[in-house]
Structures are given as C-alpha cells and as structure tokens.
Design brief:
By secondary structure, the protein is α+β, with helices and mostly antiparallel strands. The chain has five helices and five strands.
Length: 124
C-alpha cells in the first residue's frame, strides 16, 4: 500500500460512525453483516449508514454483496492487512515493531516492543 491509498483509508476511518461500522464488520468476519443488522447495532438510520458504508467501500476496505433482498457488508481483510503492514513496515522503526511471516500458519505476525514500560527499580 502506498501513502496515497493509506491516506484515503485513514480518512474513511476518521469518522466515528464509519470506524464503529468497520469494527463491527471486522468482528463479524468474512461472512459479514446485513445492512439492517449494522444499522440496528449502531443505532444509525438506514440512509445515514448507507452513506457511511459507501464511503468505506470507496476507500476499498469494505465490500458488499446481495443475498436475496439483503445487502451484506464485510470488511476487506486483504486491504486491512495491507494497511497494517504499511504502518509497521513504513512508519515504525524496528525498535518499536516488526512484522514477519509465520511459515507454519501462513500468517503475518506483528511483534511490538516493550518500549513504553517504565524502567525497573534495579536498572540504576
């Protein structure tokens, strides 16, 4: 992911309703949630939520599909992975965070350093 694409994604997520909707979609996993269920969970009117979901879709981090009369929204986990990788690889020093591929699980693993712990009393 390049900085222009990352800026678009961060812009989409910088609004509370969109961020809350995205978090619910991540929790729902690849199967996603119907628009009505999202609207109810967020306490947001359908037309307002539709505006926000469209914004997330245009940013490339949410997709939708039709199932019967329902529209099902789901988080784009590949785009989310690319955004997290961008942050770790391009924005953080190796002293703070690293990302590696685990050959056993075929997953990316992010390791954060303990940079914010107060010094121990023995370290004088």
């Amino acid at each position: 992911m390049n900085i222009d694409k990352a800026s678009i994604v961060f812009n989409a997520l910088s609004q509370e309703t969109r961020l809350r909707a995205f978090r619910l979609l991540v929790q729902a996993g690849p199967t996603g949630l119907p628009a009505g269920a999202l609207s109810e969970a967020l306490g947001t009117p359908h037309n307002t939520l539709s505006f926000h979901l469209n914004h997330l879709s245009q940013a490339g981090i949410v997709s939708s599909r039709r199932e019967g009369r329902s529209i099902i929204y789901s988080a784009d986990f590949q785009a989310t992975h690319e955004l997290i990788t961008f942050l770790v690889k391009d924005c953080c020093s190796a002293d703070f965070a690293t990302i590696r591929e685990d050959s056993t699980s075929a997953c990316s693993i992010i390791e954060l350093a303990q940079c914010c712990d107060p010094p121990s009393p023995d370290a004088s």
